[in-house]
């Protein structure tokens, strides 16, 4: 079957120009009037900071420390909430473009069709853009793809450091670090850089926490951005909550919505029985996936070519993140932004039929995630999670057997 590699492909410049035009158009439509929901909370955090209050001592942000950069940057230019929101939306739009830029560069390096990957990414962004610019989860996708790009450029120290920096904005990019460490088991070239960066980042964290505690900061306030999710109930969009609501729909014990952190958690017998142990279940699930990846790498390696390394990084990271999302107590809609870059690269190594299937499933996942907020139909959540389960299956299939369900394109093949 003819691959997308054999089809026409736009140049890097044309693809990036297309992305810039689409993102600029979206910003003009949605970005100038978005002073609602989370943006107001971020604005209030910046007001507290400028008012002399110190984060993690006088108040809790609920996020890692570098997130303050996003909250404070718009405030440097204005005190008006509407202008603040417009600048905040512009920052998110720039992050989407930077993510696209890294994707295009990766495609050029690894002979993947830039147009297919870029169009799918821009389509997925467009479907959720209006809500995404009120969050800052676009930073996760950016730092994930930036770390992968640097890794492929053989800048292993900076790739791991970028993942750590992203985790200091929102914790999810930290999942890349164990994947890099696992790959370094068999990749001697990257071992020194990955280990050095991991050790340095660990020392920095320990030193910073020690200094803050000595300075009189409450250790609970410092780690609150982790505990705020682990100590709460099951968010209404989480997998366990969806199962509890489905049980009620079929005549089982009823459920109720409980307001929590500007959203709602689900209270039901199933949720109440699991809430105290579920964080440990999630941790065990993530560790189990990482152990499977480590086993596969120890037995089969990661490959000698850049293409094989890219496939392993994408498959391993995507599997780890999906398990984290499916087992997490909190699964807000914006979390799907975390895996956007991984999914579009996931689509790149396919024949035509395989790429179309991945594209359809990806778009369906976004539409299902966004439509749930409009009607709260539990079947929508279960369909979304089913699609994520398909991606998980495909990722783990490659990790263990080095093959997709749809035969992937062989690159750099010598022609007679």
From TrEMBL:
Keywords: Cell membrane, Membrane, Transferase, Transmembrane, Transmembrane helix
GO molecular function, one term: hexosyltransferase activity
The keyword NAD is annotated on this UniProt entry: no
Membrane topology: Multi-pass membrane protein
Sequence intervals crossing the membrane: 81-104, 111-129, 164-183, 195-217, 277-298, 310-327, 333-349, 356-373, 379-400
Compartments (UniProt record): Cell membrane
GO cellular component, one term: plasma membrane
Family matches, as InterPro entries: GT87
Protein name: DUF2029 domain-containing protein
Organism: Methanomethylophilus alvi (strain Mx1201)
